[in-house]
Amino acid sequence: MTATSSLSAVEIIGHRGASYDAPENTLASVKLAWERKADAVEIDIYLSKDGKIVAYHDKTTKRIGGRDREVKEQTFDELQTLDVGAWKNVKYKAERIPTLTQILETIPDQKRLFIEIKCGPEVLPQLKQELAASGKTAAQTAIIGFDYETMQQAKQLMPELEVIWVFKVKQNKVTRKWQHKPEYYIQKAKAANLDGLDLGYNGFVNKAFVEQAKAADLPVYVWTVNKVADAKKLAEMGVTGITTDRPGLLLSALKQEK
């Protein structure tokens, strides 16, 4: 694969939508990412107190919304009273927390949604139900998350979907050694029958790691990358996807022919 073809082959995933410009995890942000031709969009989900799946990142609604209460302790109607747009820009005033169903409706043909589970496995039965009702194909959604057990259960419940394990590799500040070797993550993912690795961008991510993961049939996704030079470097290493707050910027740099 030439450098040019590896650049154009990489999947550009809008992190919480096009969240550099629009308020994260809102319909406005998701739609802006599609307008900017993102290959995919990533959102975060929680289950509300009354069992609705909503797009939201933090455990509480304090940072965005101003109410210091956990998402899971608020009903959907209570969550709907929060303005989650004005903090970003006055033009997004009155933007509300969307449901997963609303976001699923926006996915264009040939594009897909990465759904990051921020709560626990309690969301899985409802998630399965909503995905089945959405009319989207299995290829149009992927489940991702940090919690290994939740990912394991997600794969068991929805074997037809891609389920990808998210993690960050820590480095010892004194010895400079990484917390674990690549084999650790690869073996864990394979043991749970997972479909890929999605990790935070740092020096752990190199060509050897990407090739080792791919040899084990585990595509590598990297987050959150907002600099063109970093994205080009990762594409040339052979990563499958790059998650970015600025999908438009990376797409124009990496896929000029589009």
Structure description:
Helix content is 32%, strand content 20%. The protein contains ten helices and eleven strands. It has helices at residues 3-9, 27-35, 76-79, 100-104, 124-134, 148-157, 182-191, 207-215, 228-237, 247-254, and strands spanning 11-15, 40-47, 53-55, 60-61, 67-70, 112-117, 141-145, 162-167, 196-200, 220-223, 241-244. The strands form two sheets. The protein has an eight-stranded parallel barrel with strand order 1-2-6-7-8-9-10-11, surrounded by six helices. Strands 4-5 form a two-stranded antiparallel ribbon. Strand 8 (162-167), helix 7 (182-191) and strand 9 (196-200) form a beta-alpha-beta unit. It is globular. It starts with a helix and ends with a helix. The model has no long low-confidence stretch (mean pLDDT 96).
| String of helices and strands | HEHEEEEHHEHEHEHEHEHEH
Label the structural class: alpha/beta
Largest sheet: 8 strands, parallel, barrel
Mean pLDDT metric: 96
- The counted number of beta strands is 11
Rg estimate, integer Å: 18 Å
Total number of helical segments? 10
Q: Which residue ranges are poorly predicted, with pLDDT under 50 across at least 5 consecutive positions?
A: none
The percentage helix is 25-40%
Strand content: 15-25%
Gross morphology: globular
Strand order within the widest beta sheet: 1-2-6-7-8-9-10-11
What is the terminal-to-terminal distance?
19 Å
